[in-house]
Specification:
The chain is α+β, with helices and mostly antiparallel strands. Helices cover 52% and strands 18% of the residues. The protein contains six helices and seven strands. Strands 2-4-5-7-6 form a five-stranded mixed beta sheet, with helices on one face. Strands 1-3 form a two-stranded antiparallel sheet. Helix 2 packs antiparallel against helix 3 (86-117) and helix 3 crosses helix 6.
Length: 276
Amino acid sequence: PLSLYIQNKNLVPYFLAESKNIYLPALILIFFLLIGGIGAFVVYEKVQFQAKSKQDFYNFLTHELKTPVFTMSIASKMLENYNLNEKALEAVHIIKTENNKLKIQIERILEMVVADKSMPQLEKVNIDLSPFFVSLANDFSTQISQDSSIRFTQQIEIFSRSILADKHFLQNVFMNLLENAKKFKTGIVNIQLIVKHVNDEVFIDIIDDGWGIENKFQKLIFKPFFRIKQSANVQGYGLGLSYVKKMIKFHQGKLILYSTVGKGSKFTVILPLIKD
């Protein structure tokens, strides 16, 4: 056996002196790890607080809106039972129509909550695309029929191909894009809906000659609650495009934006077709 005997009266100071080149970097590393850990914890708490605040906002908004919507629905049905003249019946019809629109908006908010947490429950069915977009264009045309500042045109290719998708969510996606083109304008705006297919994909273009979006905002607009500050007061919460992007992703599609300030925007949605 080999034995080593070290004889020194001051072993501790000796080893500390010899290992000073190790202790100092180790202490510095521990210090930075501690600072990083504290910073990460602060950021995590901030993110958790923001998520909870957003959830509370959704819950409050939907709860507060559901009650008056339900009340208006009952009141409008009661009015229909009376002998009303033509103008009064027309007013009741407008109330019912707008109330239904409000219901749809509340449903969209609830869908956004689900989409923000996880993948929503999609009821995918085969959708024949040409009739689907013809119906969508007719609905939008009816919606803007009283607004002379909007000129809407459509070019829908007639073809016998379909996609596997949730019809309700898909309709909300394209109606959202069309409504955005309608909102962000000054004066007269031209809006186009173009639908065509190439090989096993369908391309849907929604084009407008409205405000346009600066390059620095073109990625940010797809984040929840982000809104571009404009001189005109456009109502909204900055949730629509976030919802659109997530729904397209859930349908294995792509969303592309082309935009120039002062010239307008073009949103292109690409969805996979069911292969023949």
